[in-house]
Amino acid sequence: MKKISIVIILGIIGVSCFFLFSGNEGFSLKIVNHTNKKITGLILTTPKGDIKIPKILQDEVYKLKVMPSSDGSGSIYLQYKVEEGGAQTIGINGLTNKKYHGKAEIVFKTIDESGTISVESSSSISNYNFFD
Known about the structure:
Blueprint: H1 2-22, E1 27-33, E2 43-46, E3 49-52, E4 61-66, E5 76-81, E6 87-93, E7 100-111, E8 117-127
Parallel strand pairs: 1-7
Antiparallel strand pairs: 1-4, 2-3, 2-5, 5-6, 7-8
């Protein structure tokens, strides 16, 4: 009876670890628009290429997952064009090694007359690759 209980407990722990760590690949990005206007023209630059973000309406949330490059080169950042012809850049993550996983949240707060957006961002990075 003790052996069966131990096997069941180890099985539950194994399945829990699988589900806990299997979905943590890449970087989960969440872009939130708290401005009073729609935001267009966002481009997410990654080591694997640029991703055009569709327009994000007022109080809308856009989520996506970005897979890092296998060689660990490059970084992830978000660009948006300002009405006066310039562009602003938000650095999201400098580590893109395939062993690192993380999440970031970019919150657009306000837009001024020139189109400049006030942004608040946060990110976290982890290394869940236990077996090399």
